[in-house]
Amino acid sequence: MNRIRPVLACAAALAAVATLSACSDMAVGEQGPEHGQPGHVMLAATAVPGVGAVVTDAAGKTLYRFDKDMAAPPTSNCDAQCAATWPPALAGEAAPMLKGIQDSQVGTVARPDGSKQLTLNGWALYEFSGDMTPGQMNGQGVNGAWFAIAPDGSKVTARPAAGGSGY
After folding, report:
1. What is the model's pTM?
2. Domain range annotation of the chain
3. From the DSSP assignment, how many helices (H) and strands (E) are in the chain?
4. Cα separation values, 134 from 22, 38, 55, Å
5. What mean pLDDT is predicted for residues 91-115?
6. HSE of 30 in the Cβ direction (CA atoms, 13 Å)?
7. Most buried residue, 27, 44, 118, 135, by most Cβ within 10 Å?
8. Distance CA 123, CA 120 (A)
9. pLDDT category, 160, cuts 50, 70, 90?
10. Read out DSSP for 3-33?
11. By C-alpha distance, which of 166, 146, 158, 144 is closest to 59?
């Protein structure tokens, strides 16, 4: 019976270390919200077979950049009906949590309505209304101007394999 207590203490210590180390690769800023709390936004680098790494949001949806925007200075040229089809990825109340993306490359640009849209290496980030589930890349190459964005802010020109719509 006396041997059970040290085993239980070791198990509890291992669980605590595992929990802390699981969060260590995400940058949240010193005053960032806890994971899953209001104001929490996440950007992650996600590997797509045959395509490479693309940036996704907390729901696993692919994020895109628009060739008619500008990176320097960051400028969004997608408003009104365009923004209905390509909803802007809005900034949360605190710095976004990042996985596989450098925090120095993430910023914001002011939208006409006063909201702040996330940028990556200066490029405004958007979702595509035609992506219904995580892993879809239905917006890839639309009108020759919309492309998934890579973790470094460059545009991804590859397309998912035929029959596959993502990761």
Report:
1. 0.76
2. 29-148
3. 2, 10
4. 22, 21, 12
5. 93
6. 0
7. 118
8. 5
9. confident
10. THHHHHHHHHHHHHHHHHHHHTTSB--TTPP
11. 166
